[in-house]
From TrEMBL:
GO terms for cellular component: cytoplasm. This is Adenylyl-sulfate kinase. Its EC number is 2.7.1.25. ATP binds at residues 14-21. NCBIfam families: apsK, PRK00889.1, PRK03846.1. It comes from the Bacteria. Residues 6-153 form the APS kinase domain. SUPFAM superfamilies: P-loop containing nucleoside triphosphate hydrolases. It catalyses: adenosine 5'-phosphosulfate + ATP = 3'-phosphoadenylyl sulfate + ADP + H(+). The active site is at residue 88. Belongs to the APS kinase family. Keywords: ATP-binding, Kinase, Nucleotide-binding, Phosphoprotein, Transferase.
Length: 183
């Protein structure tokens, strides 16, 4: 009989443009190749579906994270590997979902604000600097960095592939993935 896959939530947190979605997508491809059953809950997609209507006040962000955490928990306890990508700027909200889910790997996707701003993938930093968007994380809204994440990726200093390898190594070390066979 095949061994059941252990569920786990891999939670990517970091500033807008730090690389959460990029790393999550690359990790998704790698895990699918290994035959993992997985689900991706990406910030933007979640916000147009599960948490449509919520804004960016602390209260709304916390509610956003609570709902994502709820779904991630359901999936995780049924053996799914869940990739969550959300700024999730408040430590307390992240720690609450960590406690609830249990099988939880926090990945701090870390790049200095000026690098994220230079990347400005969606042009939102420019708008935030111009005052067209309020409560923008890192500009006029807080980001509380994780104190003890399972994985810390410095995306201004390492490639996407290196970040993916770092997460895979941690998943293997924690017993969520069998180490790939060396041929
Ligand atoms: N005020 C403000 N602050 C931060 N981000 C903003 C804001 N307004 C819109 N956006 C866009 O929304 C994406 C962040 O949504 P999240 O659900 O990840 O945010 S949170 O976890 O609830 O804080 C974020 O996506 P990413 O760039 O992928 O992080 C932005 O594109
Ligand atoms: N080492 C790196 N790791 C991750 N992303 C990187 C890296 N170097 C450059 N980038 C780029 O930075 C941008 C990050 O955007 P995205 O993944 O959407 O961030 P987030 O989901 O955190 O908002 C992408 O355009 C990506 O190609």
């Amino acid at each position: 009989m095949a061994t059941a896959q252990r569920g786990v939530t891999i939670w990517f947190t970091g500033l807008s443009g730090s690389g959460k979605s990029t790393i999550a997508r690359a990790l998704e491809a790698e895990l699918r190749q290994r035959g993992c059953q997985l689900e991706v809950l990406d910030g933007d997609i979640v916000r147009t579906n599960l948490t449509k209507g919520l804004g960016f006040s602390k209260e709304d962000r916390d509610e956003n994270i609570r709902r994502i955490g709820f779904v991630a928990h359901l999936l995780t306890r049924n053996g799914v590997v869940v990739l969550v990508s959300a700024i999730s700027p408040y430590r307390e909200a992240r720690d609450t979902v960590r406690d609830r889910i249990g099988d939880f790997v926090e990945v701090f996707v870390d790049a200095p604000l000026n690098i994220c701003e230079d990347r400005d993938v969606k042009g939102l930093y420019k708008k935030a600097r111009a005052g067209e968007i309020k409560q923008f994380t890192g500009i006029d809204d807080p980001y509380e960095a994780p104190l003890n994440p399972e994985v810390h990726c410095h995306t201004d200093q390492q490639s996407v592939e290196e970040s993916v390898a770092q997460v895979i190594d941690k998943l293997e070390a924690m017993g969520y993935l069998a180490a790939a066979a060396v041929v």
